[in-house]
Every structure is written in structure tokens, then in C-alpha cells.
Design a protein that fits this description.
single chain, about 120 residues, mainly alpha, rod-shaped, transcription, BZIP domain-containing protein, nucleus, DNA-binding
Length: about 120
């Protein structure tokens, strides 16, 4: 009878070990899958960051080109403004000169033809 009890006890231990082994196997599979998904998420995040970096570099290059173009345009406007300022001063001087001629002419006219 002892051998039957021993066999029964061994089979229970084997069943218990098999249950434990099955749990370990399932946990191992679950951890592997979790690690795989974690690597996939990390890879996706890295790709997103690389794409974002490329987009930011593209925008920076575009903004630098815009800045350079606007700076050149501003420089051209300032140069033109200086030229126009110089022309304005010359035209004001010329206008004063013409005004003085007109005043002198009127004085000469009034001296030559006094009002009666």
C-alpha cells in the first residue's frame, strides 16, 4: 500500500511541478512579448524624433533663407532711402533757388514799372 501512496504522491508533485512550470513558461512568454513591444515603441519614438529633427532643420533652413532675403531687401530700401533723402535735399535747395529768382524778378518788375 505504501507504494501506491508514494506513486500517488509523486504524481501530485509532478502535476504541481507541471503547473508551476506552465506558469513560469507563460510568464516568460509574457515578458518576452512585453520586451518586444517595448522595443517596438522605443524604435517608433526614435523614428518620430528623427523625423521631427529633420522637419525642424528644414524649417530652420527656410527661416534663415527668409531672414537673409528680408535683410537684403531692408538693406536695399535703406540705400534707396538715403538716395531719395539726398535727392530731396537737392530739390529743396533748387526750389529755394527758384523761389529766390521769382522774388528777385517780382522786385525788378515792381521797380521797373511802378504802380501809378
Amino acid at each position: 500500500m505504501l507504494s501506491t501512496e508514494k506513486k500517488s504522491s509523486n504524481s501530485e508533485v509532478d502535476a504541481s511541478n507541471a503547473t508551476i512550470d506552465e506558469k513560469k513558461r507563460k510568464r516568460m512568454i509574457s515578458k518576452r512579448e512585453s520586451a518586444r513591444l517595448s522595443r517596438i515603441r522605443r524604435q517608433k519614438k526614435m523614428e518620430d524624433l528623427i523625423n521631427e529633427k529633420a522637419e525642424l532643420e528644414r524649417k530652420l533652413h527656410e527661416n534663415n533663407e527668409n531672414y537673409t532675403a528680408k535683410w537684403h531687401f531692408l538693406f536695399a530700401l535703406e540705400s534707396e532711402n538715403k538716395v531719395l533723402g539726398t535727392e530731396e535735399m537737392g530739390l529743396k535747395q533748387y526750389l529755394k533757388y527758384l523761389h529766390q529768382i521769382l522774388v528777385n524778378y517780382k522786385e525788378t518788375e515792381s521797380n521797373n514799372y511802378p504802380e501809378v
